[in-house]
Amino acid sequence: MVQGVDSCVNYVSHDEADGVRLLKSKYKIQAAGLRMTYFMTHRYDPAQHCMVFHLDYSKQSDLDDSVGYWFAQPRGPAACRVFYSTECKLRGWVPAPVYNVLTKKALSQATTWVSTEALKEWSLTQRGGSPSQRLVRFVSDVRSSLLQPPLAGSRPGLISRGGRAAVNFVGAIRNSQKVLPPMI
């Protein structure tokens, strides 16, 4: 998915405590005419929507160091905000202008695939699925739009405006379904 990555091969993959997944991968990349091989350790925590990574210090890499993280902040069933941070140190001295070009190119290549792949995934979910899956998605979307806090400067959502009426309505339905004892 990332332009400039010639290969990425996992050489360690196992689950750790609390659902965290450990992956170690060998990368071969090319950027601005340079070819590099390096080894990374990734810890993916799906419960926290986060993956942290750093160089695998037990192996010899063409990079001096590399650390960072990806974090996806859910914004509803069909949206999230993605945060990415990385710091990389190349081996040896590199002129500042070359380093700046490499950094900008690497940032662009490391992040532009996110939008493309997210749109592909969204398109697949919109087209496919059984009627029951589409119904679940519809109900989930409606629920999210009703419960979502209003954006600054916008009108409050339905639940915010008519919260008490909604609670009363649901309460009335619940009460009408209770079986009352017979009156004598």
How would you characterize this protein structure?
With 184 residues, this protein is an alpha+beta fold. It folds into 2 domains: 123 residues, 2-Layer Sandwich (Alpha-D-Glucose-1,6-Bisphosphate, Chain A, domain 4); 30 residues, no CATH class. The chain has 3 helices and 6 strands; from the N terminus they run ββββββααα. A 6-stranded antiparallel sheet has the order 1-2-3-4-5-6, with helices on one face. Strand 5 and strand 6 form a beta hairpin. The longest helix is centred in the middle third of the chain and has 32 residues. The C terminus is likely disordered.
* Stretches with pLDDT under 50, minimum 5 residues: 157-167, 169-184
The first-level CATH class of the largest domain is given as Alpha Beta
Query: What coarse outline follows from CA principal-axis ratios?
Result: globular
Measured on Cα atoms, how large is the radius of gyration? 25 Å
- The total count of strands amounts to 6
What is the CA–CA distance across the termini? Answer: 74 Å
The percent range for helix content is 25-40%
Q: Mean pLDDT across all residues, rounded?
A: 74
CATH superfamily of the largest domain: START domain
> How would you classify the helix and strand content by structural class?
alpha+beta
Regarding quaternary structure, what we see is single chain
- Main pleated-sheet profile: 6 strands, antiparallel
**CATH topology name of the largest domain:** Alpha-D-Glucose-1,6-Bisphosphate, Chain A, domain 4
Count of discrete structural domains: 2
CATH architecture of the largest domain: 2-Layer Sandwich
**Helix and strand run:** EEEEEEHHH
